[in-house]
Design goal:
Length: 473
């Protein structure tokens, strides 16, 4: 017993220690209020399904004697929830309080007495002072999606006033008392189950969270929650894994997320923090998939460029090339040597990418003759932006440094190739990378969610998207 408790504790400690999130989605009070609007519409709809059973029985009334009665076809014609409030309950979830709610019901009555006298008519009931309160617990399910449940629901009906149409006045007294009581009971019994049902009705929507968001044929991003939501007085945080994986092969990146904390801004409904870890896990995954390499050929160089990928141009800088391989076209293989590294500093997103560039002369029979191998260290600035439900980027070259790896054409001054390689990066490689980055990477999202006026800022170790949201259906 003591041992198993210890093991459980160790397991808890080790998971909490190793599980910094890569991505955090924060719901603010503004977001909660928007959620309340949607929720109240749903609850109002549910409450319309209140069903009051038929009543029938008999009652002895002097001096008439036994009166058989029945109340049937009682239905809700209107329900109003004018006053409601939602508040975060630290550590638990959301408290929903509804006050001054009302309902109007309509039904038919029928009586039979003195053996032969029958009478019937209709009635209206006004239920007022209806109050409901419940706590919505927010947790993480087995798939890492949020799941909600209503706990401690309490409903009270202050009064139910009955108004009869038709019939003798003594009937009113007969019915009013017990209709009042029966209705209050029936309503009190039904309201909380309907509230619970409304809350549970959110779960299918929460299940649409893209815990495994497909990016392309190589990669997907995992957005499952790594722990239960962190709920404070002002915010509800969903801490997610935020890691890129090769599709079908979930190998952990050889680095872990650094801890970060979100600013206490609350102008937007939602904030999403995407860590440098998330971006770097993308670099790891694409590098492992072997797609961070590119053959650059002359047809990829703009027509107007004075530099051509041939032995004539390169022969200007390295005469041995023109001498050994006259009149040949060339080809460059640019391949990432390590995983590119993304660094987020306030207002500054930089990618450090080190590549190996191998230059070949293309022989007339198609054989590639290697000329030299260069190590290229580049620092590129990333402009990151939100497009629909994606985060996308655009790179521009910052700095570049060349060094010689191997030469098959004798000694030469590497610095002389600087401008050619810079041109190749600027007009060929980076534009191709930008086409990929421009397609974007899916953000965590629920169902038919749209981002309204999203803004992205680069913070230390993460980027922060502040946005309002709108659900369409
Ligand atoms: C951005 O950060 C990188 C290092 O991470 C630095 O080299 C570069 O100068 C910075 N750029 C600006 C505009 O501050
Ligand atoms: C292709 O041409 C080169 C240079 O003329 C020669 O060295 C090589 O053996 C040729 N290869 C083939 C497969 O014919």
């Amino acid at each position: 017993m003591a041992l198993s408790l210890l093991l459980v504790l160790l397991a808890v400690v080790s998971t909490t220690l190793s599980m910094n999130p890569g991505v955090t989605v924060r719901l603010t009070n503004k977001g909660l209020q928007y959620g309340k609007q949607l929720g109240m519409d749903a609850l109002q709809g549910q409450l319309k399904s209140v069903q009051i059973p038929d009543f029938s029985g008999s009652q002895r009334v002097s001096p008439i004697g036994k009166v058989k009665y029945s109340l049937t076809n009682i239905r809700l014609v209107n329900v109003g929830l004018p006053k409601s409030a939602v508040d975060l309950v630290p550590g638990t979830g959301v408290k929903l309080t509804i006050g001054d709610a009302f309902m109007n019901l309509h039904g038919n009555w029928r009586v039979k007495y003195l053996r032969i006298i029958k009478d019937s008519g209709s009635f209206d009931v006004g239920v007022t002072g209806l109050s409901i309160s419940t706590t919505v617990a927010v947790k993480s399910d087995q798939t890492g999606r949020p799941v909600v449940s209503s706990t401690n629901c309490v409903a009270n009906v202050a009064s139910a006033k009955v108004k009869f149409h038709g019939g003798a006045s003594w009937l009113y007294n007969l019915f009013s008392k017990f209709i009042n009581k029966a209705l209050r009971n029936a309503l009190q019994k039904q309201i909380c189950p309907l509230v619970d049902k409304t809350v549970a009705g959110l779960n299918p929507k929460l299940k649409t969270l893209n815990v495994l968001a497909k990016v392309d044929k190589y990669a997907e991003i995992e957005y499952s929650m790594v722990s239960s939501p962190a709920i404070s007085q002002a915010t509800l945080d969903l801490n997610m894994k935020g890691e890129f994986y090769n599709i079908g092969k979930h190998q952990e990146a050889p680095f872990t997320p650094a801890a970060y904390s979100l600013p206490s801004e609350n102008n937007n409904m939602l904030y999403m923090a995407l860590s440098a870890f998330t971006a770097n896990s993308a670099g790891f995954v694409y590098n492992k998939a072997g797609v961070l390499s590119l053959y650059v050929t002359d047809d990829m160089v703009p027509k107007g460029s004075p530099f051509r990928l041939n032995t004539k141009t390169f022969g200007i800088f390295i005469p041995e090339i023109a001498k050994q391989y006259p009149g040949l076209m060339m080809k460059l293989l640019v391949r990432a040597e390590q995983n590119p590294t993304v660094t987020f500093q306030p207002k500054n997103a930089t990618v450090q990418a080190n590549a190996m560039v191998t230059a070949y002369a293309i022989q007339p029979n198609g054989t590639l003759s290697p000329l030299f191998v260069l190590n290229l260290e580049s620092s590129v600035s990333a402009n990151v932006f939100v497009r629909e439900l994606n985060v996308a980027g655009r790179l521009t070259l910052n700095q570049m440094k060349l060094s010689l790896g191997t030469s098959y054409v004798g000694q030469f001054d590497v610095g002389s190739l600087d401008s050619v390689l810079r041109m190749v990066l600027k007009v060929v490689v980076i534009p191709i990378v930008n086409v990929q980055l421009g397609k974007g990477y899916p953000l965590p999202a629920l169902g038919k969610m749209n981002l309204v006026n999203p803004q992205l800022q680069i913070m230390k170790d993460y980027m922060l998207i502040g946005t309002d949201v709108q659900f369409t259906g």
